[in-house]
Specification:
- This protein is of the alpha/beta class.
- It is 44% helix and 11% strand.
- The chain has helices at 10-18, 30-34, 47-57, 80-88, 100-108, 139-145, 155-172, 177-202, 218-223, 242-255, 269-278, 300-315; strands at residues 40-44, 61-65, 91-94, 113-116, 209-212, 227-230, 259-262, 281-284.
- The strands form 2 sheets. A 4-stranded parallel beta sheet has the order 2-1-3-4, with helices on both faces. A 4-stranded parallel beta sheet has the order 6-5-7-8, sandwiched between helices.
- The relative contact order is 0.11.
Length: 318
Amino acid sequence: MNVRRRLISATAVSAATALGLGALSACSSDSAATGNTDKFDVVASFYPMAFLAEQIGGDHANVTSLTEPGQEPHDLEISTKQRAQLEEADAALYLKGLQPAVDEAVSQTGIKTKIDAAGLTTLEDHGGTEHAHEGEEGHSEEEEHARDPHIWLDPVKYAEVAQGVGKAFEKADPDHAADYKKNTAALVQKLNGLNGKFENGLKDTRTKVFFTNHAAFGYLAERYGLTQEAISGLDPESEPSAARVRELQQEAKADGVTTVFYETLVSDKTAKTLAQDAKLKTDVLDPLEGITDKSRGDDYFQVMEANLKGLQAALGAK
């Protein structure tokens, strides 16, 4: 779609071809991976953003992700080739505060349509996301990162973001605005349905407390009246202190906690250490930062429904 793309050199085209990383089902063909098409070319920062772009863009969008499947998104560094890819795109869809390297790269590009998902809903401070104390870029960055970015794990907030993305697509590519509006409405309806499943599935449980590796599920817990207890807090890979293990053991007994949840993209060592010491079970609660062959489903909805089943079992849903 972008006329600049027709003028780029063969070198830039080959660079763009090499950038087919993280391509999703809607953009898996070779022609789509090059970005050398007449479609609405969207570069997304990581899976939850790419999924929105795919669902809303439909047949009109060529979507690629900066984060490869299985790559831990917080650690992403932007390559020179990826910067070139951003420059040639029609739109960038990202979540400011989650991936500092992406925030910097997007701010430095001349791309016309920059869609920050964090500005499409209200972010809250759940007191202990892993981004709160990175602190490499000064106090103001630290304060910004203290807001919990995991909005996609709350279907209601994710639907709010979807509506904002849909409006941005309509404005950036007006020729296909009617389809973007229709696709957005269909996605929001599915997300509302998912919210209903969580509400009904978690409204009557034996306990409301669940343990996770790190504090990724604050919005989900708040939405459905649950309490999230993170083992290690800021760093999902760190070992819990002996004092923290004792504290969680006591809480497990007091609140009837049966299960320690771990994630698919980080080590399960921390969760298994606590579970062994506290004589608890382990299971996966997927923060959906990427889909891999280890994921319990092929897309956002399938994995979220698997998360719901895991929570129901751990919390003793009736």
